[in-house]
From TrEMBL:
Residues 206-234 are annotated as: Disordered. GO terms for molecular function: ATP binding; protein kinase activity; protein serine/threonine kinase activity. ATP binds at residue 324. The keyword Ribosomal protein does not apply. PANTHER family: INACTIVE PROTEIN KINASE SELMODRAFT_444075, OS01G0750732 PROTEIN. Pfam families: Pkinase. It comes from the Eukaryota. It comes from Glycine max (Soybean). One of its GO terms (cellular component) is plasma membrane. Keywords: ATP-binding, Kinase, Nucleotide-binding, Serine/threonine-protein kinase, Transferase. The keyword Kinase applies. This is Protein kinase domain-containing protein.
Amino acid sequence: MDSPPASASYVVVACDATRERTEHEIKLVVDHVQERHVFLPSVGYQTLTCPESFAGTNFRAREDEVKKKVDAYATKLLPSYEDFESEGVKVTAGFPIKQVVLQEVTKYNASWVILDRHLRRDLRYHLNKMPCKIALVKYDLSLDIWRSHYVHETKITETKCVYSLPKFVSLADCHSVEDIEDSIISCKSYPHSIFSSDSSSTIRSYTKQSSYGNRSRENSSLSDFGSSSKQDRSGISIKGECRLITSQIDQKQNQSGFLPKHSDAPLLCTGCGTRLSIKESMRFSYSDIQSATNDFSKDKLLGEGGYGHVYNGVLKDGQQIAAKVRKEESSHGPGFLNFILRCVLSFSRHKNIVMLLGYCCKEKKNILIYEYICNKSLHWHLFVAPKVCHRHWDCKELRFLHEECRGGPIIHRDMRPSNRLLTHDFVPMLGDFGLAKWKTGDDTLQTRIMGTLGSYNFGIPNLKYAEDGIVSVGTDVYSYGIILLISGRQVGNSKNPEQQQSLRLWAEPMIEKLALHELIDTRLGESYDTYELYLMAKDAYFCVQRKPEMRPSMGEMHMINTRVT
Ligand SMILES: Nc1ncnc2c1ncn2[C@@H]1O[C@H](COP(=O)(O)OP(=O)(O)OP(=O)(O)O)[C@@H](O)[C@H]1O
């Protein structure tokens, strides 16, 4: 392990200042961290209450305007935090957040960066760019340590949380960066005083296991971790602890049926430890699927869609699967062709697209085997158990389908909340290619859609499509806009095109007036991010433009969002 540079005694705390709770969090840090540098990047849609609205303005010109306003807001915000300066804390406001964090870490040679929970989206960026230690404050003020030591090489291939502390590190007793480390170690050495007994978080419970017991001592050896490793009272080094925790996670997974080989596979979800291992053969035997799903038992049934029943299962090597069993049995004819088409289209490999692991055909039975996505669908989170407005609106997967696939764009045609599956980190995964089409020729796909309008597409598209049955990539863009609009709001039967259209008519004037809070379901309370709400509303507004040519492409959406956030 590399030692931090001798001069480094700064902790950079990066917060999104538009959030109400942030002030409490900042105070928590400021009250206890002396002679540290607190950095406060800030953006806010309130600054955008300009007389103009989104309406009738060129999309790109509007974005430039937005950036100027946000910059002005950041400058205005600084004086209100001057009090902190007298307490030996430096406050900086700036935009875009991630670049200013990087700038401040470099300038102050900071040894720690603590990101507030709303900056989770930038975690990977920071892990890639910064050599220092990195932690993330979670919703319950507990702390995830993402890097606990200095590194030379910051380029990472995989991000995963090293360990979690169920409470915000008690900074009251910390007088130096080393103390923070000590605090972390001692938390782990005396779990009963610090760790909650809540076992809902798997990482937390792994951490709890790893913090005491003979095994942890046996496994920690100073020679493993370099001479600069710090030791706690029981002789456990920080890095040793991290390594130990990783092995404990693997051990835990093995206990729950994961075999060693699978435990090396890349993590799909850092929340629950689900992994994805790709098989050598795409063809699965029927008996393997039968035993993985307990012979397609009812308690393994995840749900039923138009295509068939979907069962959860665990393969022999520990890989979790979702097996979609086609309702209509066929070994030839249109039904079988549809099965083949789904297979082919599902091969689109992207980190935000549910991966098809393979297929299984037995006599007339056709089964598609997908990776299992562990945290239900966006539909479930919005309508069945709405709690927090999560950032689920990245459109990377659509950009990939529309703009990055070899052989031309793929139009998904079935974008709806139930097709956006989520991990415990709320990473969206697009599933179900049952209606997808390769776009051929010019701007429109001259294919009349089979099936009823209602069952075809949740966001019925493109009024043009509804009228003459022609789809384009703009169809997906429209559906995506509708998904953004319904976020946090139950709109009755989401398959009903008339309701979708009235949702657009209802939302448009509010967005134009920037009365954005009125868009949000009251059940969400204060638990949403105002700036994200602004971005969502803006994106939705443009995506559901009546004329497809007025809608942005997914590439433009992505570019603008990465620039603004
Ligand atoms: N890969 C998966 N991982 C976890 N759950 C899944 C997966 N695929 C589907 N499910 C769940 O199974 C249920 C049925 O999914 P399915 O995709 O068949 O529904 P659908 O979108 O209505 O289907 P269709 O478009 O074929 O009508 C849903 O609750 C969905 O959340």
